[in-house]
């Protein structure tokens, strides 16, 4: 019998968007290297309203944006300008430092539904250069059994024999799985993972996951059964447990408060570590962390 843990997301707000914070969670601050996961919406924005996140910095992490509905314009300090749509993956590696904005493509309103993820970079790469990738053509894999079928799109890492071309700095997996009926999915035994329910009602190894909840499956499993009476959609996030202790504050992933304080100061002073973003939105300023003393 699987030792499955049921976890509940915390309601929060990012700008005008309601979000459900899946990670970090209390029992599991990270899953693989995944250290942050916000479900955005679904929300129907009225005409005239956008969902903008003004320029802000990152370090020590990769951001992965994955949409189920809507479109978002990504701009960053590398000069990238890229619209992302459902089924596509925007992956930005921050390394030592990068800044970016996420903007609504138009003010026509409409549905926004997606997941915003961060993967912590290991010490081997976290002080390296920044990079941006857009993947519009990701591998898909069909899984079927006598009592159901599933179709997965793999945006990071490998799943069920297919591999995303996206850069990864740690052994992680991110995949969207649409399913109906009962389907056995393969898992990598050295990974831990979360099954995050996006649409519909899903049971994992016989345990029903309520809307807004998600299931944690520990390492040691080589498969699981997903079951949905009607059309359903989940996101699988997994990986080899991340061995480094993280210090996270605002948009920074580091290893100590000193590193965080330095990053905050450099952003506030307009240091070249975090170059500017060609965005019409003003840069985001925040007060220093409580422990910061200059
Ligand atoms: Mn960001």
Question: What would you say this structure looks like, in words?
Answer:
The strands form five sheets. Strands 1, 13, 14, 17, 18, 19, 20, 21 and 22 form a nine-stranded antiparallel β-sheet that branches. A seven-stranded antiparallel β-sheet has the order 2-3-4-11-6-9-12, with no helix packed on it. It has a single domain, classed as Sandwich (Jelly Rolls), CATH 2.60.120. The chain is globular. The longest helix is centred in the last third of the chain and has 12 residues, at 257-268. The chain has one helix at residues 257-268; strands spanning 5-8, 10-14, 17-23, 34-45, 53-58, 61-69, 72-76, 81-84, 89-93, 98-104, 110-120, 131-135, 140-145, 148-156, 158-159, 162-163, 172-186, 192-199, 202-204, 207-209, 213-217, 223-239, 247-249, 252-254. It has one helix and 24 strands. The chain is mainly β. Helix content is 4%, strand content 53%. The mean pLDDT is 95. Residues 56, 58, 63, 100, 251 line the site of manganese (II) ion.
């Amino acid at each position: 019998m699987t030792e499955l843990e049921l976890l509940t997301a915390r309601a929060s707000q990012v700008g005008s968007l309601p979000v459900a914070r899946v990670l970090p969670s209390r029992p599991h601050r990270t899953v693989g290297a995944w250290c942050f996961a916000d479900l955005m919406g679904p929300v129907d924005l009225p005409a005239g309203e956008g969902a903008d996140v003004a320029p802000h910095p990152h370090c020590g992490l990769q951001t992965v944006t994955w949409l189920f509905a809507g479109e978002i314009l990504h701009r960053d300090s590398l000069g990238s300008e890229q619209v992302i749509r459902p089924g596509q993956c925007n992956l930005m590696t921050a390394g030592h430092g990068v800044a970016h904005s996420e903007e609504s493509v138009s003010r026509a309103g409409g549905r926004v539904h997606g997941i915003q993820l961060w993967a912590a970079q290991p010490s081997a790469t976290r002080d390296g250069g920044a990079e941006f990738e857009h993947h519009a053509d990701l591998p898909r894999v069909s899984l079927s059994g006598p009592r159901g079928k599933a179709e997965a799109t793999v945006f990071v890492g490998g799943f069920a024999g297919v591999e995303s071309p996206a850069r990864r700095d740690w052994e992680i997996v991110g995949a969207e799985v649409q399913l109906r009926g009962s389907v056995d999915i393969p898992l990598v035994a050295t990974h831990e993972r979360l099954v995050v329910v996006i649409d519909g009602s899903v049971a994992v190894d016989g345990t029903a996951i309520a809307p807004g909840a998600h299931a944690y499956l520990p390492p040691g499993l080589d498969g699981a059964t997903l079951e949905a009476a009607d059309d359903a959609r989940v996101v699988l996030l997994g990986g080899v447990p991340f061995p480094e202790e993280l210090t996270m504050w605002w948009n920074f992933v580091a290893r100590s408060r000193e590193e965080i304080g330095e990053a905050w100061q450099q952003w506030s002073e307009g240091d070249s570590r975090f170059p500017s973003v060609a965005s019409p939105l003003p840069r985001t300023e925040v007060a220093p962390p409580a422990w910061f003393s200059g």
